[in-house]
């Protein structure tokens, strides 16, 4: 929980996209290291202890960017008159995805450890680079103008 304050301290200095990149890279590293640690824990007890640290690193990386920033960006890119509806739909989609993850994560982890989570975070990097607008220091009107002039195809 305390790692959210890192995002709060850096969000207006470094920007939303920068925190999303840091978060994604941190989660990739933590997922891979955690998977290695779980695999090696049977050989050496030290890896079992390290796995706890890697899971904590994963949570910290999530709370720096991918946890709080999407909620902020959605509210910043949505026109005021439509914000309530958009945030409601975003919340529904988020909790639906959480339900799916809760149902299938144990099976995914049994089959492939945490490598699939690293792949999803790797996909988040180009997604952020090409599709997520930087909203730091911009007014609602400026953000809407930029979004209106974008070409996605």
**Fraction of helical residues:** over 70%
How many distinct helices? 7
Identify low-pLDDT runs.
Answer: none
The fraction of residues assigned to DSSP E strands is under 5%
CATH 4th-level superfamily: MFS general substrate transporter like domains
Give the N-to-C terminal Cα separation: 38 Å
Query: What is the CATH C level class, in words?
Result: Mainly Alpha
Order of helices and strands: HHHHHHH
- Shape assignment: elongated
Number of strand elements:
0
The CATH topology is given as: Growth Hormone, Chain: A
Give the total of domains: 1
Computed Rg: 18 Å
| Largest sheet, strands/sense/barrel | none
Overall structural class, as computed from helix and strand content, comes to mainly alpha
């Amino acid at each position: 929980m305390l790692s959210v304050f890192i995002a709060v301290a850096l969000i207006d200095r470094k920007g939303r996209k920068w925190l999303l990149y840091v978060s994604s890279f941190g989660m990739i590293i933590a997922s891979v290291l955690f998977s290695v640690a779980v695999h090696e824990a049977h050989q050496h007890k030290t890896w079992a202890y390290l796995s706890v640290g890697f899971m904590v690193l994963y949570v910290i990386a999530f709370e720096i960017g991918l946890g709080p920033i999407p909620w902020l960006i959605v509210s910043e890119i949505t026109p005021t008159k439509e914000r309530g509806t958009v945030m409601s739909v975003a919340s529904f989609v988020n909790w639906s995805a959480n339900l799916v993850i809760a149902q299938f994560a144990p099976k995914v982890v049994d089959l492939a450890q945490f490598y699939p989570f690293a792949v999803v975070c790797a996909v988040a990097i180009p997604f952020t680079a090409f599709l997520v607008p930087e909203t730091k220091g911009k007014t609602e009107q400026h953000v809407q103008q930029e979004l209106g002039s974008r070409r996605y195809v």
